[in-house]
Amino acid sequence: MDRENEKVNMMMGAGGRAMQDLLKKLTVNFSRRGVADIGLKELDDSAVIGQWALTIDGHTVTPYIFPGGDIGRLSVAGTVNDLAAIGSEGIAIALGIIIEEGFPVEDLIKISKSVGEAAEEAGVEVVTGDTKVVERREGGIYLTTAGIGRMHPYLMENWEIAGRRGGTPWLLDSKVRPGDAIIISGTIGDHGIAVLSKREGYGFETEIVSDVMPVNHILKSALRAGGVVSAKDPTRGGVSNALNEWAEKSGFGIKIYEERLPMNEGVKAACEMLGIEPLEIGNEGKLILAVVREKAEEVLESIKKVKGGERAEIIGEVTQDFKGVVMETLSGGLRIVDPPLGDPVPRIC
Description:
Layout: H1 17-27, E1 47-49, E2 52-59, E3 65-66, E4 69-70, H2 71-86, E5 88-100, H3 105-122, E6 125-134, E7 141-151, H4 155-162, E8 181-184, H5 190-196, H6 216-225, E9 228-232, H7 238-250, E10 253-257, H8 265-274, E11 288-291, H9 296-304, E12 313-319, E13 325-328, E14 334-336
Parallel strand pairs: 5-6, 10-13
Antiparallel strand pairs: 1-2, 2-7, 3-4, 5-7, 8-11, 8-12, 9-11, 10-12, 13-14
């Protein structure tokens, strides 16, 4: 496509290949002065400077109140989870709010209460922020959160237990190795389907509620058991995109098993009706972990004891037999799991 005539589209913000391509065009223009130990080059969930992790996230979910949560809870969970996925313990959050003229004050107060409750649940504090009001377009609200966290107190011990010599203890996408087990902390697709069920024109009902929650307590339990080498919260682009990022950055393949994927029946039914791939749907309260084989069962059992981790499962392993991501289906065949072009359910986060 002629670059002068190229236009931004929804896929470019949906977490898949289209967004990755756009990011490459943007980030090449940013200077790299060597401040960050882990920064734009790695494109992980957070940056690292010394013992500190930093992340930022924008939230445009529609509708802004959905089954199981709202944009306020989502904004805190999303930021805390990005900090957790790199191996840090979140401490403080900055909150930016852009409100369109005509937005209901009652809903704004409800959202602010959700922010406070989620921050309390995660053990972080909202310490600063900014508010703007703009002309009315959709009567909407948009939140931006930046978070800072320090190296998790269990991270160094976790890395020693993993037995990998040298390198950084931070949980980078590139650190998965053949033999590592892949664990997911619970059912997939809940958030995307819960949001979609409340949008006009889709014509289906489901009892599924969003999984939106901070996963830092799940990470803490996993690190305490030890042997975690990488972590990811599978938001935009879902499990498919997260696993493909691991495979691409590490250079190794990942094999998962369809029969082991935890999924609620309502999500499965909705995906079949709408023709949506569950692996590509965004989640907002799940964590994927790569764990050294000998510690996998112990980590799994530790996660199952934590709220939100009761349905955790070992869903696959890292291999050097092939590149990319492959799933063994229920029928015993193999299917390539490509990274999605974008999330099939836009504006869910």
